[in-house]
Amino acid sequence: MNEEPTKDLATRAFQKRVLDEFAAVRREQTAFAAELSAMRAEQTAMRAELTAVRAEQVEIRQDVSGLRRDMADVRTDLANVRTDLAETRTHVAEIRTDIGELRVQQTAMARNTAAIDQRLTTLEERVDARLKETRPIWEAVQEQVQRLIERFDLMLHDLYEVRIDVRGHHRRLDELERRVPS
Description:
Blueprint: H1 4-179
């Protein structure tokens, strides 16, 4: 018998095993290539995400920078407000001092006004007393003045009558002079 067919069987079995192993390696390679493609796609997606995250990070940094500027502005404004508040407190203290001085002056003026009122009352009482003393004198003087006015009116009336009489006499004289031949 020929040993070659047996040998051939062993070679064939070996070749089949090698081919099967190559096929298995190729399948693994294909699976690995597919897995590698998936990983590359995932890496690309991750890179895109990383780019987006970096862009967000830049935006966040800009926002933080803007917030820091705003915070610095707020601190400046707060310092200005504190300065204004201190000035306002100083002004309020000055106003309170002025009000205190005004109250003292007002009290002094009230005392002065009370003293003036007292003096005026005393003066009015004196004037009333003097009026009571001089009233009869004034009434007598007014009565005499009234009588003088009446006499003066009577004299004026008489004077007017005399003038009227003088005019009448002038007319008569003129008339007589015209009648007398010259």
